[in-house]
## 1
Amino acid sequence: MIEVEHLTKDFARTRAVDDATFRVEPGEIVGFLGPNGAGKTTTIRILTGFLPASSGAAAVAGHDVFRRSLDVRRRVGYLPENVPLYADLRVEEYLGFRSRLKQIPPRERRRRVEAAMERAAVLDVRRKLVGALSRGYRQRVGLADALLADPPVLILDEPTSGLDPLQRIEVKNLIQGLKGEKTILFSSHILPEVESVCRRVLIIHRGRILADGTPDELVAKLGGRVRYRVEFEPAPGPADAIRAALESVPGVLAAAPETPEPTSASFVLTAREGADPRIAVFRLAAAKGWSLRELAREASSLEELFARIALEMAPAAAADGGGPAAPGGGAP
Ligand SMILES: Nc1ncnc2c1ncn2[C@@H]1O[C@H](COP(=O)(O)OP(=O)(O)OP(=O)(O)O)[C@@H](O)[C@H]1O
Ligand SMILES: [Mg+2]
């Protein structure tokens, strides 16, 4: 549904996108993750036909974004980084106006505007002036706009930026609710958010796609390991014995007590690549009569990895000649 091949974009002194290649299959929700200045917005603006690339190719919904940008725009709901809204229109007037621009047939406009307002949860502010909305609500009106024409593809540039925690969850739920129905690419620099919504994540840094896969794949590929935390209550016995039992579970490479006491109640498990030992650990605890208080996947593993990518890989990328200040040959 979204196909990007060797896409490069140079601004005067900056290579904002550097030979990016990736695909988003129909019905997929893919997170586009990267630190500030990584090239997310630039890529998105190229994909939505608002910016020409320097070289490479991109197609969305089967149409070339350069030669058929109008066809692309008709099939894509785009939430820009800064939502341009008309301050002196009321929310429903604004969406009505947008539905005319999007050439939604007059008979359908009313219904589409209502449906989009409902999905983006802005019905309660429908008669408010856009200029009087809080940032979170403005963001949601932008989402309603993106949903208006019921497009098959949604490209959302930081849909949760500037939202309070509750609104973030609502937007996350909204995106999740579109699963299977729409193809979605959304950018963010907040990893847990992306991880909870997307089965697949793209990581971009200094214009380059550094990683592409499921969160677990990325962790495995980039040298991390998935960890699990298990906590009993009370501590079921000597830490050494518990540890040995946990390490006998298939897929568990190591079990480390969290506290130095001889009777630790909690352990951190390092799992083999691709293994999820939780069910087996649960069964072990049940068989031994240990009462399990918590058994959780450590969400921080990809986060640590992402921090490492952003920090450590930066000098490495510069050292191999691909820094943003040194755009090698290619585009004139
Ligand atoms: N119009 C422009 N002219 C010159 N340089 C630009 C322009 N737009 C973006 N850049 C540069 O391209 C690089 C990538 O910027 P981009 O906005 O795509 O990053 P981003 O990943 O969206 O970052 P953020 O998380 O801060 O939104 C940056 O170095 C930026 O300064
Ligand atoms: Mg951006």
## 2
Amino acid sequence: MSFTVSHGNGIAVKYKNQTILLDPNFSDFTSIVSHAHSDHCPEEIIKKPYCTEETAEFANIRNPSFHSHVMKEGKSMKFDGFSVKLISAGHILGSTQTVIEADGKSILYTGDFKVRENLTCKKIDIQHADVLITEATYGYPAYQIPDSEIVRREFVKWVEEQLKKNKKINVGAYSLGKAQEAIKILNDAKIVPQVSDMVRKFSESYRKFGIKLDFLEKDEDGEVFIKPMHVIPQTKSDFVNCVLTGWAVSRDYGCQGFALSDHADFRELMEFVEAVNPKRVYCVHGYENVLAKEIRRRLKIQASTLTHRQQKLLTDFS
Ligand SMILES: [Zn+2]
């Protein structure tokens, strides 16, 4: 068969002289954008990419020149001999994996994904593919993230304790995805936070897509403030700070950290690969070398990295 995959301008899947680009920097061929985080969105739109309605809206907030074709999740589209379908990735609202089929073979590209449930987006859809191209953010065995429900409870408990001490609180969270989950967790504990401008823009869009989020009006004073992670170290000392990130399992942020992640941890990655049951795995983004080694060792599935500028002919499976 004449499939190839390569990693350069995003991930390129080629079949009989036709190309599909997955999360490219420049969308100069038929392209699919998995979700609206900036490291997955094209910097330059040459040919309009395809993505879900939610991804189109969020990407447009960050980059007004982002224009795209909207593709419905779960519906196959034909592109020059390929069949392409988007299925939920469970990472942030609108995030998808891409299933590409041609010549009776299937390739699944995960983008960023999470297996555990998320309070503000759909759970992941897992399906079989012959070739799997998976993210490897937490592809190192030591990265075991605690159960989300436990982390949410610890976070709420800590916030309530600070409020009892009359402290004001900064919560550091990525503006898209994590911040909205933080709002939802606080709302469930009857706390309505104040939010930064960027968090407000994304959160208002979440509301448009039916996710109920309560946050204060711009001029209202709040006791809990949700803002991007990078501004937390610079904030005033009369606040107590915390961050919400999976990296809190191993990194010191100089404040309270809660390991709430939007990515699969190592155990989830292994369970996911086992469930997809591919003949071949390529690992990208993160601890790809370690993950490929562990997939070979533990699951006895052929696995390797797909490093930048590397091209693989998919002739080694059938
Ligand atoms: Zn992401």
## 3
Amino acid sequence: MKNAVGKKQLIELRHKLHKQPELSGNEEKTAETLIVFLKKQHPDLLVTAMGGHGILAVYKGETPGRTVLLRCDMDALPINEISKLEHRSTISGVSHKCGHDGHMAIMCGVASKLARNRPLHGTVLLLFQPAEETGQGAARIIEKLKYSPDQCFALHNLPGFQLGSVITKAGPFAEASKGLIVKLTGESSHAAEPQCGNSPAAAVASIILYLERISDNSTGTIATLVHARIGEVAFGTSPGDATVMITLRATHTKELDFFSHRVSEQIIKTAAEEHLMCNLSWAQEFPATINAELPNSFIRESANYLGYQMIPLTRPFLWSEDFGHFTDEFSGAMFGIGSGINAKPLHSRNYDFPDSLIPVGISMFIEILERSLKL
Ligand SMILES: [Zn+2]
Ligand SMILES: [Zn+2]
């Protein structure tokens, strides 16, 4: 059997994926590229078009045993990449600014290792998951998944941490979050006679101030205004409707439910005081990612064994990950790999996944499999 695919080929694959970024749910070409690569890695089973453009590569051991799932994400972001990089995005307004291109290259590297060195016992599931950024992909995949993994793992590259370090924490790792869309309806009127209508402007102002008052960074319970629109752009008209969009987050999914209820009640009360109709709807729900003790200990042991610097977290990340759907359903854990102290932040238009993390991610996953598949 030939040697595993080398680092250079995996970097080329990452650059190819980076050049053809696709938004959540539209990962068609990305999937095509991955399928071509994965077929050459001879999985025992290759499931495509899973929950959209998702792919599952299955590697079976000689004897039965545990089933372990490793997951990476496939989608890019609606961000215009301004860069001199040779592998910069060729799609205007879309780019890989969360490093999911790197996550896919890592998972392809794991496939190549498993093709040459299949597990002794049990089954490994390599999952390429679409639509992470919108929080829809994981739930759709879990619905279609015909396996019930004993453990599942995922990683995310993390700027602001030492390059190649491993960051993890048992218990809550990333917060729960969800989007709230508030639609307020009053009555428009001539701008010369605002008293003849009922503008939602004062209610919007009051809601925005309320959100600032109730957010508490120290506990991670945060309500962030992400968008607001009052009426249309027309100097002759006093507005009659408004939309406010808010992202709510909390450490645990249950806490988020409680917080959401509290915020909704206040908004409904404000709207009633202003005699406005109020309609609330929810979007992009991410459960908290909760790392179970045992899989988290495998992450720690693997990092120690490989000699990677371990950075234990004292509190969960404030951002959310739809891997939370997996840790909700199965025993699992997520970890970060540092992209460098001075790396640009995720989702910033200058961010690019460091290629040097590809071997770090592969070796971490291979060591984790070694431990989690052991009978
Ligand atoms: Zn992201
Ligand atoms: Zn991401």
## 4
Amino acid sequence: MDFDPTEEQQAMRASVAKLMARCAPQDKLRQWDAQRVFPYEVYDAWVEAGLLQLPFPSEYGGLGGSALDMAIVVDELSRTSTDLCMVYSSAVFCGLNILRKGSEAQKAYWLPRVMDGRNKFAISISEPGAGSDVGAMDAAAIRHGAGYRVNGQKLWNTGAGLKDCVLSVYLKTDKRLPYRNGMSLLLIDNDAPGVKLRKLDMLGRRCAGTYEVFFADVDVPADRLVGGEGGGWDCLMSGLQLERAVSAASSCGGAQAVLDLARSYAQERVQFGQPIGTFQAIAHSLASMQTELDAARLLTMKAAWLVSKGRDALREITEAKLLASETYAKLANQGVHIMGAFGLSAEYPMERYFRDARSATIAAGTSETLRNLIAGLMGLKKAKT
Ligand SMILES: Cc1cc2nc3c(=O)[nH]c(=O)nc-3n(C[C@H](O)[C@H](O)[C@H](O)COP(=O)(O)OP(=O)(O)OC[C@H]3O[C@@H](n4cnc5c(N)ncnc54)[C@H](O)[C@@H]3O)c2cc1C
């Protein structure tokens, strides 16, 4: 058993850390969060560094990186900001769906646009009546002329309002078919006629932004259909393992940032004549945080490694997403507590970490959804999600 990342992976992590320190220093992160703007220059730097090329095979101009490489990059990006990293993850997730399920013509058209940053991508699944219960979706695309006409509403779409963003929209193309059947994936420009966006006022992740999207008689050409008509659920499932592995890695990076700050604060902050980190209560709290993060990261990297080997890792990935997201949210709460009132003040990034962390146990599958799935895989109930 070898737990060491390769030299290339160590170098990749170090170069991502350097890039983020240069492009996204703390004062800028604080400013972007306050102004609720996304820094396109950071995205450009990711493109220039080849991060968007990383998971795609060389025959399409990619770098042929593995799921484990992705997990390492996302962990490191999220150590600076889980908020910004969501924009990276969405683009990769949508691009990989096109790679897996698109036609050769679609791959030739879209993959260069993913890799050179011409387009950003957002995932558009959730609706007011369809959250954990994705199959309950109501937004629909019906055949119209040579393509489709789309009507309906989506909710909580991360990054949907970014410049040149293409929405990967999951829609019912046949409402006669029950539940997850009759669902298809269409790629729709966020500025197509009939598309309206509303940026929502959310607790965290304010740079990527969370959007409500309305579709009113939006005409979409047939060549924007990925995976064939009725192939939407298959497209969604084909990428879900990677999405959850990446989401777990992001929570590890976010939790690492929390721990780094809480530890250094505890070493510096003096009360009763000694650093608070020397009080056993605080030292034990930090020791538990370190232990929980190490466990979450180990499980995450093992799950990503299994995916890299082409092995089925549904249980490990689901467990990793569950443990890492709960660890991130828990550590952020403890991090605020260790810093006292400073933990709640914008003087330090801990309050932003806390806000950004809270959604980790909700987005990309709630903890209950994940426990249901793990229980199903253990033979305890029928797995639906
Ligand atoms: C920051 C953020 C970003 C997001 N980004 C996107 C995005 O880019 N694209 C997108 O499409 N969606 C996105 N979402 C939506 C996300 O996928 C949903 O919030 C999630 O699936 C849960 O749905 P819901 O919020 O409607 O909660 P609900 O499904 O209504 O659940 C409410 C509560 O009930 C529990 N619950 C539901 N069903 C069960 C059950 N069977 N057993 C036990 N408990 C249950 C849930 O666990 C939860 O605690 C995002 C959400 C957040 C917070």
